[in-house]
User: Fold this.
Amino acid sequence: MIPRHAQITIALLLVGACILGFYVLSEKKKAEEQQRRVADNRPVAPPVAGTPQRVALVIAYDDEGVLRRRTATVVLPEDPALRAREVLRALLNEYVKKPSPHPLAEGSDIKDVYLFQGNLAIIDTTAAFADAHRSGIYVESLTIVSMIDTLAANVPGITRVKILVEGKERETLAGHADLMGFYDVAAVHELVKEMQ
Amino acid sequence: MRISRALSNPRLAGLLLALAVLWLGADISRSAEEKHVSVYAPQTSYRLAVVERDHREYVALVGLLEPLGTASASSSGADWTVRWNGVEGRFTEGKSQGKIRGTKVDLSAPLVVENGRPMVPVRSLATLLSRFLDARVDVHESARRVFVANAGARFTAELKKGDPPVLVLNFSMPVSPAISTEGGRLKMVFARDPVVSANENFSFDDKTISSLAYDESSGTAELTVSGGAPLLASFSNAGRTITVSVAPTQAACPPAPPTSPSGEPAAPASPGTAVAPSGQGTATPGAELPRGRYLVVVDASHGGGERGAALGKDLSEKDVTLAFARRIRGELQNRGITAVMLRDADTALPLQQRAEMANAAHAALFLTVHAGTMGSGVRVYSSMLAPSSEAKVAFLPWETAQARYVNVSHTVADGITLELGRRRVPAESLEAPVRPLNNIAAAAVAIEVNAPAGDTRAFHSPNYQLTVASAVADAVLAARPRLEEPR
Assistant:
């Protein structure tokens, strides 16, 4: 036999569980709605210290379907991996700002670049970069080759590049461009020449 | 006092608490999925969103009638008049009775109005529709499926014994289910097709394909084929026939030549086998194509829920690629070339499975069709892999299987570009990182069709489709000697 006060406690717990459930449900709906509306455009890395330097960017222009080389001044740190990341972030900034020659969604960013043995670069991108990318062979190829050729132009010695999304492998960028394999920098450079 | 007595039992109280938590969890997950009613009529099929009011399910009355004719609703205070093709229905907000064609109808629950739209209970759909349409209406209430004028699509299932066996499903009308596979189970979900069955289970006296189960819920019908091996489905007979067979695996590949030229037993695997990663299946060799066999696999990219690029307001890449792929297949067949399509309906097919199927078919050429809106004309892509001149090996790495074939792929791409130019279609051939070209153990190209002068209506133009398809077919015919060379 449970004492009366325990019965009341259990009854209150049941009522509390119901109220809590409905509260969780309403908060879940709110959060889902919020997620749909707002793209996460928080910076993914702190600003870096370094000296302003001229870098070469290979920029895609959708209107003409071409790639063009341009120079920009970017603050670059000493560490090669951080330099690589800042160069790529400068490129994506060109695409994210409005108007853009090759629009990418807000929140498209580089989380990290990892360099291995001086010749392999692994680029880790944000989810927004891939999730909100426009779909199409040419438009996806422009993004990828402009990133790889920009990286190769500013970080000598890179011969192979792999692109990750939020630290994980992904089959394609937006349904077309292959992200499973390693890109050969020389082959990408030849393609850039054809796309200029 | 009964509640008090129940709570005084510790086991019962604990059970009640657990049930409350379970109920809440179920309620949360239920709320996350949208509910739909599917309506199937001879002229159309459509889905309606279901909203819950006072623990009852409702749908918009005008939305229910509109796809079947001209429907409108007008109100005067709480009274509503709904007209469909000249038939009048009168209802009152908060009342569970109304009149259609001057005769009383019971809605089973009060009419509610939301955002200026009269909503009727799902339970009343059979009565309402049969009165408005003056036709037979069958409602599968638990599955929320409504069939107007015997609109159901029946099917027969026949297991054809063989090695391996195949299950042939013949439908009374074309169907386009979304297909997914997991291990030895292949699931087909029919969201827009009025598939019905009197039997829920079909058992086959076979270990490879052992059973077929029918189920329907939340506005869809599902067929699940169970077997002892990975399965895949293919369409034929204009979407009326689905054939379920064993997915190609290394064990299911045609065996390598039994003896070497010296008479010694040959290696168990044919040269040039591309191996899929992490045990997800193997692709079969593309090398040593038998003389005289010249198979082109035409792949209409995307499909099902994977829509591809948005080419216009209501135009998806998946629909354009299917139309062009069908044209290309037809033009190839007109030239005496055997061509098969990986999908001939609006079905989803993973990229890896496409590559596996093409490799298993020993294709001489894999041709994947895409569409875009950047520029005009046609771009023809081949792999960016560097050509490999390595000696024949038993297995090829999955991610670079194309390397041995990339030179012939470039040749085909250039040939297609040339033929398109002859027909005054702007075209260029490029290398690009198109998935799954790198996984194909045969010549492989991707064609991206763009709308001339940015006019997306051209995607529907039979002339444009035919011009592109005939150029592709002529180029493939011209490349035949090169593609038939032993590799």
Notes: The two ends of chain B are 86 Å apart (CA to CA). The mean pLDDT of chain B is 81. Chain B touches chain A through 47 residues (CB under 8 Å).
